[in-house]
Input
Amino acid sequence: MDSSVTATASAPLLSGVREALRAGGVSQFGDRPGLPHLPEVETWLVDGGVVLKVTVAPGERPGAKKIPSRVRDALRRGGFTLVPDAGAPSATSSADVLASGRAVRVVSLH
Output
């Protein structure tokens, strides 16, 4: 399967993740067009799956330490969950990876 077919098939998953984050009040790229804005998270497609990364370090903005838990809650309510990368140590949870600023894969619970 070529990458354009994979990306097209994965687009609804990415849209669903972005909508779940938006509904949970998590700011993303493009939420405030024309205004200076550092989004709280970025999402994109990689190898047919959705990857998410927190873009605000804990000390950069008041309340930034709570972003990972807000992301997890918003995704859970939207029917998604985070999965640690296969290269992460087995004791590392997706929450720890997300809080560290590294990218985490998002999967549908359905």
Q: What stands out?
A: The radius of gyration is 14 Å.
